[in-house]
Design goal:
Number of helices: 2
Helix content: 25-40%
Number of domains: 2
Oligomer: single chain
Shape: elongated
Order of helices and strands: HHEE
């Protein structure tokens, strides 16, 4: 019976160490590749420039939606265009 318990304990410890090693390896790979996972410059034949999008998908102004346009600089020197919808004015009820 002791032999069986020793083998079972050994199997459990080996499984725990193996799983811990695989999780550690996966976390390290994700850490090293995180920059390439954050941004995909072109996805499956989709246009890269908004001017290449179909009409109605180029800008919120195509649909008559008011918006503010911002350019956010990145560490690489690229300016990312961001469009934020205009804030609605808050209406207060007269009591």
């Amino acid at each position: 019976m002791t032999w069986f318990m020793d083998k079972l304990t050994s199997l459990i410890y080996t499984s725990i160490y193996g799983t811990s090693g695989l999780v550690t390896l996966a976390v390290l790979v994700l850490y090293w590749k995180q920059d390439s996972l954050l941004y995909f410059p072109a996805i499956g034949g989709m246009p890269k420039a908004t001017s290449d999008n179909p009409t109605g998908y180029r800008s919120p102004s195509d649909m008559g939606v008011p918006f503010d346009e911002f350019f956010i600089p990145t560490d690489e020197g690229v300016k990312v265009r961001e469009e934020a919808g205009a804030k609605r004015q808050r209406r207060t009820a007269a009591l």
